[in-house]
């Protein structure tokens, strides 16, 4: 019996889009208005790393648990989180990421197939696959990844419609992405733009109706939003990272109204101040107080669990599911609990994953 005092119990929070292996880069990669400069800087910083990736990922996962995140959708370079997080009692879908705009896919295919049998005895572990983004992966690589995922029942994710540069690259084949890919020798000379905007391009790829978790979707037209609502895909919105890159307001509310499953992510600490989904919720509430707090909690829990294919086990406090539950203490006592946890000083005091308290 544990007395948690005056606190509010909620389902464990879900960070549906993050890159834990970049957690040493907090405050290290300033954004100066050009996304490809930020990416270039990020890659340099990652390559000059002295700290072992394992310790960065382990500390980031412990940090997530401390912040009430019981499930992460993580993308790590070289799938490095797969071995590391097997030792950490956090629930996870770990996406192995591939890159390649060209049509030669042997290396990527071998890599993806090597990731597939990576089964652990860890009941909190699930492997996923991720073609990085439409400006770094060609249609053949998307199709191949979706086929492998379908065969092995693995969830999928990709970055989509993140910047206007991506839009320019796909519609005209020009702009900062072309220059950057040429600079790093990743631009195949025979590549031609699909002449479509990112969302409409993605939606016409032959992906056999495999659901993808689409990270960001910052730029989407009304027609594309309607088409997305008729697809099986989910959207991960990363509010504070979105602000970091100064994008125009995200259309998450329009997406929800259209019936799209929208969940929350922090993205990496290279564009955010913490790995706390509660902080994302509090930030959103502060900027959009009229948005219903119960919908916000659902975005932070059940919607993320659905997007990561864990909804049969977690995402809500329901008989038959596993007990991923957190306790939140808040100075706000007069308002309904959904709203009280959105007080800026509300904090997570206990985290339980699969019935076991995390040592914080
Ligand atoms: Zn990302």
Helix % is 25-40%
What's the average pLDDT?
A: 93
Gyration radius, in Å: 20 Å
| CATH topological fold name | TIM Barrel
Order of helices and strands: EEHHEHEHEHEHHHEHEHHEHHHEHEE
Count of structural domains? 1
Gist?
This protein has one domain: Metal-dependent hydrolases (TIM Barrel).
Keywords for this entry:
360 residues; TIM Barrel; alpha/beta; globular; four-stranded antiparallel β-sheet; binds zinc ion
What's the SSE blueprint?
Blueprint: E1 8-11, E2 13-18, H1 35-47, H2 53-66, E3 69-76, H3 81-84, E4 91-98, H4 106-115, E5 125-131, H5 139-152, E6 156-160, H6 164-172, H7 176-183, H8 198-203, E7 212-216, H9 222-229, E8 234-237, H10 239-244, H11 252-257, E9 261-264, H12 277-287, H13 293-300, H14 302-307, E10 325-329, H15 337-340, E11 347-353, E12 356-357
Parallel strand pairs: 2-3, 3-4, 4-5, 6-7, 7-8, 8-9
Antiparallel strand pairs: 1-10, 10-11, 11-12
The chain binds zinc ion.
How would you characterize the overall build of this protein?
- With 360 residues, this protein is of the alpha/beta class.
- It has helices at residues 35-47, 53-66, 81-84, 106-115, 139-152, 164-172, 176-183, 198-203, 222-229, 239-244, 252-257, 277-287, 293-300, 302-307, 337-340, and strands at 8-11, 13-18, 69-76, 91-98, 125-131, 156-160, 212-216, 234-237, 261-264, 325-329, 347-353, 356-357.
- It has 15 helices and twelve strands.
- Helix 4 packs parallel to helix 5 and helix 12 (277-287) runs antiparallel to helix 13.
- The radius of gyration is 20 Å and the shape is globular.
- The mean pLDDT is 93.
- The structure holds zinc ion (ZN).
- Zinc ion binds next to loops.
